[in-house]
Structure formats: structure tokens, C-alpha cells
């Protein structure tokens, strides 16, 4: 998975069946689907793969317990089915996580227990564990950090957990292995038309500052919260399709929430659920739901959002947290389908497709868990819009995997330079050879790519990420043949970004 090799393809191939704009979960899933059907497919991503919303999830693959409560049966069934497929198709990235809902009266206990039993039944053959009612004593044993005042008992259930960025990289590798061309740091600057029909895209290689004019039978807009802006490249007067909503997560040390079980608070003051989830030796707390008018690739947390999560966590746990205990804050934007007059937490998380008069296909909404179904629906539509040869979707049982054996290659990298076997930081097991691997085989081009998405230091502890950025920049500069000015600029860029992740 080498960026220069991928660029060579677009220099020689100017005509494509499908061009996909956007390298998050949906775009990468669509590239896999298109390539597996035999279509000549190109995916371009303006930043790094999963740079936006797709790397800033709660790290859960779930059917959505609260969607069941809202009566959105279809979405829950779809998500549970897709969750099951991901367990089969990407087992290296997916694991079972146990959750406990603390309850404070008999009515709550039976209400949530019945709902979760239905949730189990809806999983069908993809069930991953049975719901169980817990006594007060059992709940305290399973959630030792829970404040047991007024506690009645709990309900234990199971859902999926994953590493979003790691899965994204393997999805990009899978697409390439199937014949797709996939490139990060390539921006779609204009939509081209012939006889008022979309027939191509002008793209810019943001690393080498080179423009390309490419033709395509179909163009797909899979840019999440940036969907509106790409649609406006096609039609400047079109109404907004997406209404963004912001959700933040706090990362704290596992000292504050001990044990292997996650906790789900089923109803907060704004109508959302709140999770406390073990993840790589840390605890993720989230999330919020704040409607936004202006969006950016790196949104900032609001004070009221931080206070909201701290307050709700402290209501339920015996070791209270303060701002100084937050190791990292990350912020994601949800690309919700616009519905005027409906509170964002109530807007359906179902996905939606829109085909413009000129033939631009826009896919948005949805959630990580359902990316495969979103991709299938998108490519089914692309067949029709582009008059492509019909071919059935085969991704139901298609394995998501890297192009090569990472461990074997890292050993070879260490043979080149024994110093690369040293840890990047004493608190973590990651070694310097993994930086070289990420450049050569995962298209990492910037310090941020390494520390935010290939190795998740920015999410584990933002201050530590800032400390090690200079060393990472120097190692990268040697591999990428960059000068000291590049090193200084990368350190500054990453430090400015990482400061947003510090409370």
C-alpha cells in the first residue's frame, strides 16, 4: 500500500468506472464493493484515511440499544446483522465487550431487561452473548467503581468493540488488493460535466502540488459532514442535505473506572446514552450531541460538553474526575440527514442516498457499524446511474485484511536498523520500526498520521504525543527524504493540533 505506486496509476489511467470522493468508512467500503464487483475504481481523500468522523467514534460496533427504544426496528436489525458480518470478516479488529446498565428500581430493571432480551433475539445467528439480570451485589462486583447508593441491580449485555482507524487502513489495503486505486491527500477541487451530466473530477495531489483531470462514468460523494460542500460543486444552489452534530469523548486512566466491563447510562439529561468503555488500557467517556452551523476537519470541544460528561460520570462513580484527569479529548461530527424542527439526538441514524439531476451520487448518514450496507446500496445505485455492467455485491463474506504480514515486515525493518527496535515511549510497547512500516505500507505522510491514526498516542495521552512528536518527525524525515524545515513545520503543526486534545 504505497502512495507513489497509487499515484502512478492515475498518471496513466484517466478514465474510470467510478470515482469516490472521501476516505472514511463509507468511502472505503464503497471502494471495496466496487472493486470486488470488477469495476475500475478510484478513491481520493483530501486528508488522511479516516481523518474526520471515522477515527473519532466511541469505538463500538453495535445495533443501537437506544434506537430500539425509539422504535427504529429496521435500523437495529440492519446494524446487528452488519455487526455480525464484521466479526466474521475482520476478526483482527473486532472484539466482544460486556456492558452493564445500572438500574435504580424494579420497573427500570424489567424495562431494560426486556428490551435487551429483544435485542438479543434480533441478533439471530449473529448473537454474541446472552443478556443477564444482575442483583445489586453482582452489579457492584462487576462494576467496582460504581456508586451503589440507591442501586437496585443491573443488566449485563454484549456488543462489539473495534479500533476505527486500524480497520480503515485494512479496508484501504483490501480495496487496493481487489484492484482499486486509493490515495490520501488528494483533494477533489471541481466536478466536471458534459451535457449537464457529471463525467469527471479535477483533483489535486496535496503533497506534490499536481493537478489531474480525470473522467468517470460515476462520481460518488462519500464525504460525511462535508457532503453539502461537494454537492455544491455540482450545483451551487442546492439545499443542504446534511445537518452536522458534534459529539465529544474524554479519555481517562483506568484507575477511575476499574474492571473489564463497560457501563451504559441509558438516559442523560439531553436524551442520549452515555458510555464508559475500557479501550487499550484507558477509559473512553462519551458522548454528547450538539448541533453545529459551522464545521471544520478538527472541531473543538465546547466547555459545556466537557462539563456535561464530567458531571454525569461523577454522578455514577465513586472516584470523581476533574479536568486535570483528562488524558485526551477528541471530537467527531455526525453527518445527520437534515430534518427541520427535530432535535439532533432524535434524528434517525439511518443512511440516505441522493442522486442529483446531473448524476452525482451522495451517500451520508448511517454509522460505522453499517458501512458495508451503505456501500452496497451506493454501488447498486452507481450501476444504474453510470450504466455499468450489472454485478452482484459479494462483500457479505469478503475478508478485510492487510496486504502483507506486518510482524514479518517489521522484523525485516529492524534488521535494517537495530535502533528501530526501541520503544517510542517508555509507557507504551510501540517501537520505532512501526513508524517506518506505516510510511512504507500504510501511506502515512505526516506526524499526525502516525500519532493520531497509525499509533493512537494522541487519543491515549495528548501530552505524551506532543513529547514524542519531534523524534517521530526526525525518523519520518529520513524515510521520506525531507529536510529540517519539514521537521520543524511538522512538529509545529502537530503540536498545535494536539493542544486541542488537552483539557
Q: What's the structural blueprint in terms of helices and strands?
A:
Layout: H1 3-12, E1 15-21, H2 25-36, E2 41-44, E3 60-61, H3 65-69, H4 73-89, E4 94-103, H5 106-123, E5 132-134, H6 136-142, E6 153-162, H7 164-177, E7 181-183, E8 186-194, E9 197-205, E10 210-221, H8 227-234, E11 242-253, E12 262-265, E13 274-279, E14 282-286, E15 290-291, H9 303-316, E16 326-337, E17 351-355, E18 361-365, H10 371-385, H11 406-416, H12 433-442, H13 447-454, H14 457-460, H15 462-480, H16 484-499
Parallel strand pairs: 1-2, 1-10, 2-7, 4-12, 10-18
Antiparallel strand pairs: 3-6, 4-6, 5-6, 8-9, 9-10, 11-14, 11-15, 11-16, 12-13, 13-14, 17-18
Helix pairs in contact: 2-7, 2-10, 11-12, 15-16
What is the gist of this entry?
The protein is α+β, with helices and mostly antiparallel strands and 503 residues long. It contains 16 helices and 18 strands. The two termini are 36 Å apart.
List keywords for this structure.
503 residues, eight-stranded mixed beta sheet, alpha+beta, globular
Biggest sheet details: 10 strands, mixed
The fraction of residues in strands falls at: 15-25%
- List how many beta strands DSSP finds: 18
C-alpha Rg (nearest Å): 23 Å
Distance N terminus to C terminus? Answer: 36 Å
Question: Please, could you describe this protein's structure?
Answer:
- This protein has 503 residues and is an alpha+beta fold.
- Helix content is 37%, strand content 24%.
- It contains 16 helices and 18 strands.
- Strands 3, 4, 5, 6, 11, 12, 13, 14, 15 and 16 form a ten-stranded mixed β-sheet that branches. Strands 1, 2, 7, 8, 9, 10, 17 and 18 form an eight-stranded mixed β-sheet that branches.
- It is globular, with a radius of gyration of 23 Å.
- The mean pLDDT is 94.
